[in-house]
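Entry 14. Structure prediction run on the chain below.
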Amino acid sequence: MDKELLFKPRLPEDEVEVPGLGTVRVRGLSRAEATMIESAGTTEAKERKILAFGMVDPALTEAEVGRWMKAAPAGEIQPVSTRIAELSGMLDDSAKAAVKSFREDTGE
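Output returned:
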């Protein structure tokens, strides 16, 4: 194997619908980014980092994510951060099973 392949970014991407606003593009987090999130402190701080790292279009800073959190209904951001976590392989098996079950039930 060519070791340079190890250093080439290969983070999966996907789109997530934000109801009433449109579609955002997100990506999975790198191991380095995931490690930074673990030490972020509060749940809110961790979610801000996840979204700031994982949002591709539009790209958001942590401060902008904080503004979105203040303006958004409670459930609006969760599907976006959950999809980033899925793409990153950060969900435990029970969360993965719940997402799979939901998708099967809704046909997504």
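The CA atoms of residues 42 and 48 lie 10 Å apart.
Filed with the rest of this week's runs.
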